[in-house]
Structure formats: structure tokens, C-alpha cells
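Standup notes
- DV: blocked on the single-chain target, sequence here:
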Amino acid sequence: MALDNEQDDVPRTISVVMPAYNAEDLLPKVLAPLLHMQEAGEIAEIIVIDDHSTDGSKAVAASFGVTVYQTSQNGGPGLARNLGAEHAKGDILWFIDSDVIVHEGGAPLILEAFQDSSVSAVFGSYDDTPPADNFASQYKNLTHRYYHQRG
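- DV (later): unblocked, structure below
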């Protein structure tokens, strides 16, 4: 029986990569749905990259049993994402910011999208109730949502 080479190239595993800076208060809420997805076998791993936080973000993330790395210096989310991507084992990298709570069913939608061989990337949209209570995060998330929904 011949193997379908295209089917062999279909991504099947998701690695979550989450940069975090001073996110100790949000991490329990943000990690909870991801841990449920991991327990259900929808995602392979959760990697939190502490970007030299001045709070207990690193310890909080570690207390949930996720993989934690720390950047060599505070370099912003791009540096943290790159470090996480270097260590990720999954076929798909799902970048999630530390102030974003994903909705149930997100991982299966990502896997479904990648069943189409013409799909190279997918992009999610913020909802209208960001969990962060500081003005900067709320403004940023709601602005992103506005442009994502209009796009």
C-alpha cells in the first residue's frame, strides 16, 4: 500500500509558546484553559518564557508544571518567542501572550485549518473582554480586536 506523502506532512502537534513579563497575577487564569487542552491531548506542550520579570512570574508558571525558560536579558516578547520556538517540539507554534485567555476549542480549530496544505499560518482575534485590568493591556487588546474584526 502506497503512503500519501502529502498526508505525512500534515501538522499534528501544537506547542504553545508564551512570553511573560510581570504576569504572575494573570498566569493562573491564562494557563488554566491551556492545561485542559494539554490534558485532552489537543496541545503537546506549554512553554512559558520569563522575560526577566521582577515579580514571581517564573515561579508561578513552574508551579503549573509547564516548561519554563528565562531570557538572558529583558528583551521583549520577540526575543522570548524566539527562545521558546527554539525549544518547541510541536509541528505548529501557537504564540499566546500572557494576558490572553484562549477559548475552549481553539486548538482543534488550528489543527483543522492546517489540514489544508495551502495553509501556512493562522491568526486569531481578541474578544471584547480582555482579562488584564490595566489600561495599557486593555487598550492594546481592544485596538487589536477592532482591526482584526474589520480585516
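- Follow-up: Residues 1-5 have pLDDT under 50 and may be disordered.
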